[in-house]
Structure formats: structure tokens, C-alpha cells
Amino acid sequence: MRLLERMRKEWFMMGIVLAIAGAKLEPSIGVNGGPLKPEITVSYIAVATIFFNSGLSLKTEFADSRLHASPCVFCSDFNQGSWWK
Questions:
Q1: pLDDT above 80 (res 61)
Q2: pTM score
Q3: What whole-number distance in Å separates Cα of residue 29 and Cα of residue 35?
Q4: pLDDT tens digit string along 31-43?
Q5: Which end of the chain, N or C, is surrounded by fewer C-beta atoms within 10 Å?
Q6: InterPro entries this protein is in (predicted)?
């Protein structure tokens, strides 16, 4: 039972070790143009995931104060940008 508790506690490290071991055994999966398409996955999806996770960790007071001003700025910028001259 102690092993199962340890695995639950250290799940992230075990996942990293498994990912590294898998990359060592089959490196052709992560090569450019391979099935994982790292040129797209790393440059867009990974960066978007990192920013999304950091946004989830914001305190709600900080997020609420920022979100209150952004719709006003977006709407005024959008309205002024679409004026006919």
C-alpha cells in the first residue's frame, strides 16, 4: 500500500521519467515532421497551455479588476477602428 501512496504523491515525476524513457526508446515520434508535429505542438499548443494554466492560477480579485476594463477597451477600440472615413 505504501507504493501506491508514493505513486499518487509523485505522479508528476513518474510521468516525466516515463516520457523521457519513451523518447529514448522511440525518438522518431518526436522528430520534425513526425507524428507529434513538434514544430506546431511546441510553438503553439504548449505555449497556449502554459498561458492558460498561469491564467487559471490568478487570484479572482486580480482577474476581476483586469476583466472589468478589458471589455470597455475592446469595444471602444473595435468601434473606433471600424469607422468609415
A1: no
A2: 0.49
A3: 6
A4: 888 888 888 888 8
A5: C
A6: Na+/solute_symporter_sf, Put_Na-Bile_cotransptr
Q: Please give the Cα distance from 4 to 65 (Å, whole number).
A: 43
Instruction: Write a three-state SS string for the chain.
Output: CHHHHHHHHCHHHHHHHHHHHHHHHCHHHCCCCCCCCHHHHHHHHHHHHHHHHHHHCCCHHHHHHHHHHHHHHHHHHHHHHCCCC
What burial class does residue 30 get, using C-beta atoms within 10 Å of its C-beta: 0-12 exposed, 13-18 middle, 19+ buried? middle
Work out the pLDDT band at 74, boundaries 50, 70, 90: low
Tell how far CA 73 is from the center of its chain: 26
Query: Under a CB-based contact definition with an 8 Å cutoff, are residues 45 and 53 in contact?
Result: no
